Amino acid sequence: MKRTRRVIILAAAVLALMLWAAPQSASQDEHEVITVKSAESNNGVVIVRAEANKVAFELQCNQQMLSCTSLHPGQYVMVRLPKNWGIYICANVNIYQMAEDSTALGDPVGQYCVIEK
Fold first, then answer.
1. Spatial separation of the C-alpha atoms in residues 115 and 44, rounded to whole Å
2. 3-state DSSP call for residue 75?
3. pLDDT bucket at 22, cuts 50 / 70 / 90
4. Strands (DSSP E) along the chain, which ranges?
5. What pLDDT does residue 101 have?
6. Which of 1, 14, 60, 93 has its CA 20 to 30 Å from the CA of residue 66?
């Protein structure tokens, strides 16, 4: 019984590590610079209006989530997560502060569902 419990705990830990690390490494190549135009809150949802390559879109997240931030206007780096990764049931993206060295992303400022028009 104890051995089975240890195997389950170990398997869960390995799975959690894989889920955490895979989006980090798999998505690093798919980043693009975006410009945030505005952000507002409506019924518990943060709606961020942004643009990349002259194409407008929205980023949405639930206010109660820790990774939901109302972004200030300016430039950010958006990284698209692989399909079925992230906390929302949609196309998930991580948003990072714009850095002088675009290859060093640091910690994400938020995770959003991208709504393309």
1. 17
2. strand
3. very low
4. 31-42, 45-52, 55-62, 74-80, 92-97, 110-116
5. 66
6. 14
**Do the Cβ atoms of 95 and 112 come closer than 8 Å?**
yes
Which residues pair with residue 52 across a beta bridge? Answer: 55
Direct distance between the N- and C-terminal alpha carbons of the chain, in angstroms, rounded to an integer: 53
Per residue in 38-84, pLDDT tens?
Answer: 999 999 999 999 999 999 999 999 999 999 999 999 999 999 999 98
The owner of tokens 């945030």 is 36
Nearest to 108 by CA among 7, 5, 31, 39: 31
Residue bearing the bigger pLDDT, 14 or 54 = 54
β-strand partners of 74:
36
pLDDT recorded at residue 106 = 81
**Which phi and psi angles does 22 have, rounded to 5°?**
-60, -50
Spell out the domain ranges in the chain: 2-116
